[in-house]
Design goal:
The chain has 181 residues and is an alpha+beta fold. It has one domain. It contains one helix and eleven strands; from the N terminus they run αβββββββββββ. Strands 7-8-9-10-11 form a five-stranded antiparallel sheet, with no helix packed on it. The protein has a three-stranded antiparallel sheet with strand order 1-2-3, with no helix packed on it. The relative contact order is 0.12. Mean pLDDT is 81; it is low at 16-33.
């Protein structure tokens, strides 16, 4: 039994429509998941006057951090009142700072994510890694993605942490990193 060309064409169109529907509904679901992961841990963002962290200065139209490197203007970018700053201290060397922009107080919680220099982060002998932090100004969720070079491939694992009472608390570990918006 053979189908007419017209009928085959309609069946193919229906199959294509069904596949597109499944694809776009999954993509929308994934996007919702990525956005809601930070929305699930929302905080109120402070809207008042903020302090400039110690060592930051504005000169010649450019902001500089405490070691004199050009940086973004200090503004709330984490947990409603904090500034997470990423700083370079040379090749393969980076560190994060966490400053309360209402009080100006420095919080050492992010020192564990520093890498390079004299204290190169190591997972095992000869295997170094670096950490990328993902965060939003309206959320107290911090996602730490650890990238390690193993043989010829890069491996990434991530940890989800909640920042409460001026401390980080791990809530989830993943053996693979995800992409977030």
């Amino acid at each position: 039994m053979t189908l007419s060309n017209n009928r085959q064409s309609k069946i193919l169109q229906l199959i294509l429509c069904a596949l597109l529907f499944v694809f776009f509904s999954r993509a929308a679901q994934s996007e919702k998941t990525d956005k809601s992961i930070f929305q699930d841990h929302q905080v109120t963002v402070y809207e008042g006057k903020t302090l400039i962290p110690d060592g930051y200065r504005f000169s010649g139209g450019v902001w500089f951090d405490e070691i004199g490197k050009a940086t973004n203007a200090p503004s709330i970018n984490f947990s409603g009142k904090y500034l997470i700053g990423l700083h370079s201290c040379g090749q393969g060397c980076r560190y994060y700072t966490l400053t309360d922009l209402i009080t100006g107080n420095y919080n050492p919680s992010l020192e564990i994510f520093s890498s390079g220099g004299e204290t190169q982060s190591k997972t095992k002998p000869g295997s170094t890694y670096y950490v990328e932090l993902l965060f939003k100004r309206h959320s107290n969720l911090l996602i730490a993605q650890r990238y390690t070079q193993l043989k010829k491939e890069e491996v990434c694992m991530e940890t989800h942490l909640i920042f409460e009472d001026s401390k980080l608390r791990t809530i989830k570990d993943n053996q693979q990193c995800r992409k977030y918006q």
